[in-house]
Automatic annotation (TrEMBL):
UniProt organism field: Massiliimalia timonensis
Protein name: Acyl-CoA thioesterase
Matching Gene3D superfamilies: Hotdog Thioesterase
Keywords recorded for this protein, A-Z: Hydrolase
Any GO BP: acyl-CoA metabolic process
One GO cellular component term noted in the UniProt record for this chain: cytoplasm
Length: 141
């Protein structure tokens, strides 16, 4: 539930607070997938669609969409849920996490089993996002 301490000067959920919640959800999803500690590499494509206000119930859903050798991309969708249980989207983001070993070095993560066409499409999009991130790092962008 959004409390007054979560609100910015415009009476809306503070974007930084939502980013914190997104990072936590992505971390839990990634950690459960790889059974290792994780660290956030980047939050990519954070897209605000609608505001949330005091007393709104915020629901976050996280799902692994793509994995590399040591990294995992997690999509986090954020919704406001009304009293009837209907959810309307207010944000989605992609977060890249890296699994780390006991020496805080990157460690290999398990693959991802794709079970439907939507997951396969998300995987392909995740592969493209990964390539774009790699190119941006190379270009120092």
């Amino acid at each position: 539930m959004i409390l007054s301490e979560h609100i910015n000067g415009f009476g809306r959920l503070f974007g930084g607070r939502l980013m914190e919640w997104i990072d936590i959800v992505a971390g839990v999803v990634a950690r459960r997938h790889c059974n290792h500690n994780i660290t956030t590499v980047c939050i990519d494509k954070l897209h605000f669609k609608a505001p949330a206000h005091v007393n709104d119930i915020v629901v976050l859903h996280g799902k692994i969409t793509y994995v590399g050798h040591t990294s995992m991309e997690v999509r986090v969708d954020t919704f406001v849920e009304d009293l009837n249980g209907r959810q309307r989207p207010i944000n989605h983001a992609y977060v890249v996490m890296v699994a780390i070993d006991d020496n805080e070095k990157p460690t290999e993560v398990p693959g991802l089993i794709l079970t439907n066409e939507q997951e396969k499409a998300e995987w392909e999009a995740g592969k493209r996002r990964s390539e774009l991130r790699r190119q941006r790092r190379k270009d120092l962008f």
